[in-house]
Request: fold
Amino acid sequence: MIISVIFFTENFTLNAQDAVTLLQEMDNLMLAPKDKQGTVKIILTNKSGKEKVREAEMKQKGRDKRLYRYTQPESQAGIATLSLPDNIMWLYMPAFKKPKKISLLAKSQAFTGTDFSYEDMESKSYSERYTPTLLNTNEDTYELELIPKSEKSKYSKIILNIDKVNYYPLTMEYFNKGNQKIKEATYKYQKTGNYWNAGEVTMTNLKKEHSTKIVFTNIIFDQDLSDDEFTVENLVPAPE
Reply:
């Protein structure tokens, strides 16, 4: 019995270590570039199949600086979000003329009307935000359960499937505090130069029967983007 207990304890520890390592491998792949810049097409689809299309410019530096600025349609142009270190996020709406800091409570809300929340779009790594457990090792994937470290998270858990060879995410299933699956995301990764990059991400809200597809194009890596690109002041466009 003592041997069984020791074996179980060792096996549990190894699984926990494996889960942490796998999640870190995914983070390392997703956050490998020093910086990146590109065009983002956002396609919103309702349960009737009707689509709305938006476009934005995206810039990211390191692990914790990210800027989105909408360019199309005209009604959305100029709206911008900025993610900074220490879990800080800012939103700029042209109608209000000045940036607004997003509270922890507001991060559970929809990211500029999409099926992603501000929490989903945080720039912090998954390893920083979640405690992982390895559930299954399949032929092509690893299945992990992610438990939020923050009690303020709107999720009770996320079920993540990672590609077994390259460690990029394939699917994520999101569960609310009542342990009901409320959303699911699918990822399509492609290699551009030295880096794997998410060419397409689709988030589906199961209750609303609504989805948001984000398509990344014209991605450029390692341009040595200046820190000045990622300031609250830069959210406000220069006067013409």
Summary: The first strand starts at residue 35 and ends at 45. Residues 1-14 have pLDDT under 50 and may be disordered. Residues 35 and 75 are 29 Å apart (CA to CA). The two ends are 77 Å apart (CA to CA).
